[in-house]
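Operator note (shift B, R.M.): manual run for Cytochrome b-c1 complex subunit Rieske, mitochondrial requested after the automated queue skipped it. Running by hand, logging everything below so the morning shift can see what happened. Input copied straight from the record, untouched. If output looks odd, do not overwrite the archive copy; leave it for review.
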Amino acid sequence: MALRACLSRAVLVSPRRLAHTDVKFPDFDGYRRESTLDASKPARETEDERRALPVALYYGVGGMMSLFGAKEVVQTMVSYKAMAADQRALASIEIKMDDIPEGQTKTFEWRGKPVFVKHRTAAEIKREKTVNVGELRHAQHDDERVQKDEWSVVIGVCTHLGCVPIANAGDFGGYYCPCHGSHYDGSGRIRKGPAPLNLHVPAYSFKDNIIVIGSS
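Run finished. Output pasted below as returned.
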């Protein structure tokens, strides 16, 4: 009898679904812009107003960053102009031409880099000026790289991976980089090996019997 009563109760009990209709959803209207309170209004009609703040922030922050960058540039320029004479001298070096005999190359340090100053002979000048520029990897005539035929001034840093070449060496009588086998001629032009570019020519000028490197 007890089992039958339990079964009858199980049959009579039906599942019920609770709707939770008494739960109130939070109202976020207080956090919305007035232009978006009307849910029936298309978003396109309020697009300009909604984008006004982000656009203002974008240009405002961008303008501040531009002003900050300009300030740094101006301060750097002013500080350079205000340097003492001995500090400015470090930006350029003077080399006496009489100290370099004809046919020799001497190395000097300028701004932490080696600089090769080559006093070329008449034979070297003729050899470099008769090179077929069309066959060069980095096509430059010798006249584009020297101010006076007798003098060649180049930065002694290989354009491949930054090693320091050996002066008066290599297959073309100029410079040879022992790191990976780049050969440069007496004008500092790449002629053989992996280097992609000629040796860089720094700004320099002649003053009486002196070469001033770092001044044009």
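Quick read of the result: The chain is about 25% helix and 20% strand. The chain has a mean pLDDT of 81.
Leaving this for review. - R.M.
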